[in-house]
Amino acid sequence: MKLLRTSRREPSEAIAALTDRRNAAYERVLPQARRIVESVRRGGDPALLRLRAKLDGIASQSPLRIPEIELQLAWESTPEPVRLALKTAARNIRGFAARQRPKDFDLKPAPGVTTGQRVIPLASVGCYVPSGRYPLPSTLLMTVIPAQVAGVGRIVVVSPHPAKETLAAAFLLGITEFYRIGGAHAIAALAYGVASIPRVDKIAGPGNAWVTAAKKLVAFDCAIDMLAGPTEIVVTSEAGDPTWIAADLVAQAEHDPDAIAIFITTQPLLAKSVIAEVKKRARKNKIATAALANHGLAIIARTPEEASALTNRIAPEHLTVDGVADLGWVRNAGSVFIGRWSAQPLGDYISGPNHTLPTSGQARVRGGLSVLDFLKLVTVQEYTQQGVRQLGPAAIRLANAEGLTAHADAIRARGARG
Question: pLDDT per residue over 30-46, tens digit each?
């Protein structure tokens, strides 16, 4: 990790780069991803199977859809402690998503007028579960369960090389439509549909640069959750334990060589202790070592106010702070962990809040994946004759002010004066 001080001019460029970062990896592969997406869109199943053989290394004669018996056998062969852990995580994720779900309501803003909201689930979603560097059954839980809580009728899972634990998680959740496919070609199949895989209304879940590029390309034709960049962690602390802070920094850094790991404090001794502990803990972890060497920073701010302002400028995916009082200044973060006992990996697996979170500064404008991503909020309005007489005149005046005379006439036709 590099040590930076905000009082010096040189670090300002590094800090500016953090606050204006982009996922260059997916931008580099956009042209190739576009060719893959168009190939599947135009060529259907034959193109999809050809690309799967070439890019996923799966024989073209191998079935796309994973049989339900394979999911069941994966569950039955998973050790009981792991099955119990999956059940615990699923229970907590489901409980949290259920509390997030909005409700229908009706209001009466004036006599004879009823307005309201109806919460309607999407008809179909596709959940992408990566299976490259690490098997990620937790991501299957985090994407599928909110969709189930929302009431989505058809939930499709895709993953090129799902681990036994991922297949077991699918069986636990009752998933039956699971396809062994990945990359940009999987995203194209979900977005546009092929003979073997009918299209979906929305795609959710993180992936590599090819997956992210493809999601960007199909976003006008199929809804997506967000564009996922490399994992990010910021710890902003004045009095934390350097061992525990370092442990969290290394834990998130091991996701990807491009992961970003930052410690912000006003305490020089604490910063140096964290750097030393990070070096020790990352020594045998090649991926974390690479990430920390390229994107690891310990920043010494001049004041706590500067530290909090810098944290909000970075808008990290994961943020750890010292105490509940710090929530008063947090404005931009995907998920916040409070206090020394709240290890960030607990949130990756078991707590309940979703671990699919905004990266690359998107936390300025949205939170993590939630049940809301799988719902539509449809507004409804009902007028009686009395209601038209109550609110019609004001609406007519506004229509006339905008020069939309036919709007005004449509309201007058119902008996309103104005």
Answer: 999 999 999 999 999 99
Helix (H, G, I), strand (E, B) or coil at 284: coil
CATH topology of domain 2-23+229-352: Rossmann fold (3.40.50)
Q: What is the pTM of this model?
A: 0.93
Q: Residue 185 catalytic? A: no
Strands 105-110 and 113-121: antiparallel
Q: How far apart are CA 61 and CA 58, in angstroms?
A: 8
- Of 68, 318, 382, 402, the active-site residue reads 318
* Apex 93 CA angle, 87 and 98, nearest 5: 125
Asked if 306 is an active-site residue, the reply is: no
pLDDT grade, residue 22 (50/70/90)?
A: low
- pLDDT, one tens digit per residue, over 342-392 is 999 999 999 999 999 999 899 999 999 999 999 999 999 999 999 999 999
- The fold of 26-227 is Rossmann fold (3.40.50)
Domain boundaries, the chain: 2-23+229-352, 26-227, 386-418
Catalytic pick among 232, 254, 277, 317: 317
Q: Which helix (H) or strand (E) holds 233?
A: strand 232-236
Query: Between the CA atoms of 349, 175, 218 and 31, what dihedral angle is there, to the nearest 10 degrees?
Result: 70
Does 2-23+229-352 match 26-227 in CATH topology?
Answer: yes
The token pair at 99 is 């509390």
**Position 248 confidence tier, pLDDT thresholds 50, 70, 90:** very high
